[in-house]
Amino acid sequence: MTDPAPGVPRRPLPLVLPYFVYAKLIRLLPPALARRLPLGPYSLWIAREPLRFFHHVAFDQLVTPRTRYLRRAEIDRWLRDPRVDPASAYIVFRNGNSWKFGGRRVA
User: Fold this and answer.
1) Is 79 part of any domain?
2) The pLDDT of residue 9 is above 60
3) pLDDT (tens digit, 9 = 90+) per residue, 57-103?
4) What mean pLDDT is predicted for residues 37-42?
5) What is the pTM of this model?
6) Between the CA atoms of 18, 30, 99 and 60, what dihedral angle is there, to the nearest 10 degrees?
7) Inside any domain, residue 8
8) 76-84: long-range contacts at Cβ-Cβ below 8 A with a sequence spacing of 24 or more?
9) Residue 102 pairs with which residues in a beta bridge?
10) In which domain, by residue range, is 45 found?
11) Do residues 91 and 75 lie in contact, with contact meaning Cβ atoms separated by under 8 Å?
12) Are residues 52 and 84 both part of a single domain?
């Protein structure tokens, strides 16, 4: 297991519980309202998961030494590389907070 950064608890459960409750409560609201709340789309998605998954996600986020945020234009540029088969390239904006993208290498 990776050691967390200084000041990051080894067991982030106390940090996870308030958000776990928030996400579970958001699922009880009408979806149109829930999506307008802070972290709404992401909360609706993650609320389907058990507490163990929330704990995993929080720990993963807290121990990451550095995060690099990418603009869509940068991902588009990567996927236009001639080594990527254009018919296989895809970009999906997920949960209101992240990108999922990929493609196959040209044979």
Assistant:
1) yes
2) no
3) 877 776 666 777 788 899 999 999 999 999 999 999 876 677 889 99
4) 90
5) 0.59
6) 20
7) no
8) 79/103, 82/106
9) 90
10) 13-63
11) yes
12) no
